[in-house]
Automatic annotation (TrEMBL):
InterPro entries: Alpha-ketoacid_DH_E1_comp, DH_E1, PdhA/BkdA, THDP-binding. CDD domains: TPP_E1_PDC_ADC_BCADC. Residues 9-22 have a biased composition (Basic residues). Its cofactor is thiamine diphosphate. Residues 1-33 are annotated as: Disordered. The lineage of its organism: Bacteria, Bacillati, Actinomycetota, Actinomycetes, Kitasatosporales. This is Pyruvate dehydrogenase E1 component subunit alpha. Pfam families: E1_dh. It comes from the Bacteria. SUPFAM superfamilies: Thiamin diphosphate-binding fold (THDP-binding) (SSF52518). Residues 65-335 form the Dehydrogenase E1 component domain. GO terms for molecular function: magnesium ion binding; oxidoreductase activity, acting on the aldehyde or oxo group of donors, disulfide as acceptor. Keywords: Oxidoreductase, Pyruvate, Thiamine pyrophosphate. GO terms for biological process: branched-chain amino acid catabolic process.
Length: 388
């Protein structure tokens, strides 16, 4: 990971000059697909109700459970970083609905290309959450087999996975598969050339790919208004495919819209851009201090839209979950936290020289040179110890 400390890099601003994110560009009135209001009231959508019409109470409770356990796992990882057990962590706090809704919309044979923050999607794909932590602890370079769950390794190079997804989608289309591909990226990534190229290629080759942009309002310390002068979903129009803005804190709406987009892809109708309008409630990563660049009031305004509270209100008011369900889930959440702590602390340190083995299949003179330098560096500590 090469994410720098924003606190160290950015000039300090006084409280009076803090910016607020996501001001709507003048004249635009973006349509937001919503099935659950922030208070948890179900609202009708002529276009998207069909995609959640057959959902059972058990599945609804399942969506809630996914969000609660993902949030718990994420909080545990943040604590582990603070205790020195992880080098870094990128929290998904606030983005649970966007990730669980879209993740649960995927089919087993679909293929997912994540960024570094898609812990909820990984959960939906069946990747054991403890496998996500090895890279952040620095003991491996990935932690899971991408082909076991059709969930690619985390990608740190912003936006590059949209090209990988497009190429993959073009490939499966040539194979005649009826599965689809989904690529996750952020509002900041939308400014990358790779994303523009992915949009162009996927459109002209009619690739079965869904571009799922979590607009969490910030790219480290840059607000979305520095990335675009039009709502992000409207960019799709210029490339010739549909774009939809969905309430990213509404798990039902995210499920419905992503199902719709994946089905379009499967039917051979090409790419879709889904902009999940949400908010990064925490820091960019554990190396960042958002109080340096954004106002507390902004976070407070989003707290009332919390994805988990809204789903809980809906389940309770519609009588689809009782107190016993919530109590059992709390116990399950505690157990998950305990397991995550135990597994992380027990992760063995890798052989220090193993990193030189994975760069080239048949070795390389430059790598040999680097290995020798590293060996000399390691040996220098032994000498120091002896000298003292
Ligand atoms: C090509 C590239 N440029 C810069 C960076 C440093 N960097 C890491 S995260 C990030 C911001 C990404 O913001 P966004 O796409 O909105 O995703 P978010 O972190 O908000 O989920 C940047 C600039 C990088 N990893 N890769
Ligand atoms: Mg962002």
């Amino acid at each position: 990971m090469t994410v720098e400390s924003t606190a160290a890099r950015k000039p300090r601003r006084s409280a009076g000059t803090k910016r607020t994110a996501a001001k709507k560009p003048p004249g635009s009135q973006p349509d937001l697909v919503q099935l659950l209001t922030p208070e948890g009231r179900r609202v009708e959508s002529a276009e998207y109700d069909a995609y959640v019409a057959d959902i059972t109470p058990e599945e609804l409770r399942g969506l809630y459970r996914d969000m609660v356990l993902t949030r718990r796992f994420d909080a545990e990882a943040t604590s582990l970083q603070r205790q020195g057990e992880l080098g870094l962590w990128a929290s998904l706090l606030g983005q649970e609905a966007a990730q669980i809704g879209s993740g649960r919309a995927t089919r087993e044979d679909d293929y997912v290309f994540p960024t570094y923050r898609e812990h909820g999607v990984a959960w939906c794909r069946g990747v054991d959450p403890t496998n996500l932590l090895g890279m952040f602890r620095g003991v491996n370079n990935g932690g899971w087999d991408p082909n076991s769950n059709n969930f690619h390794l985390y990608t740190i190079v912003i936006g590059s996975q949209t090209l990988h997804a497009t190429g993959y989608a073009m490939g499966i289309a040539k194979d005649g598969a009826d599965s689809a591909v989904i690529a996750y990226f952020g509002d900041g990534a939308s400014s990358q050339g790779d994303v523009a190229e992915a949009f162009t290629f996927s459109a002209v080759y009619n690739a079965p790919v869904v571009f799922f942009c979590q607009n969490n309002q910030w790219a480290i310390s840059e607000p979305t208004e520095r990335q675009t002068r039009v709502p992000l979903y409207q960019r799709a129009q210029g490339y010739g495919f549909p774009g939809v803005r969905v309430d990213g804190n509404d798990v039902l709406a995210c499920l419905a819209v992503t199902k719709w987009a994946l089905e379009r892809a499967r039917r051979g109708e090409g790419p879709t851009l889904v902009e999940a309008y949400t908010y990064r409630m925490g820091a960019h990563t554990t190396s960042d201090d958002p109080t340096k660049y954004r106002a507390d009031e902004e976070r407070e305004a989003w707290e009332v839209k919390d994805p988990i509270l809204r789903m809980r209100a809906y389940l309770e008011e519609s009588g689809q979950a009782d107190e016993a369900f919530f109590t059992e889930l709390e116990a399950e959440s505690e157990a998950l936290g305990k397991r995550v702590r135990e597994v992380v602390r027990a992760m063995p340190d890798p052989d220090r020289f193993a990193m030189f083995e994975n760069a080239y299949a048949d070795g390389h003179a430059l790598v040999d040179e680097e290995r020798a330098q590293f060996a000399a560096y390691q040996a220098s500590f032994a000498d120091e110890g002896e000298g003292k």
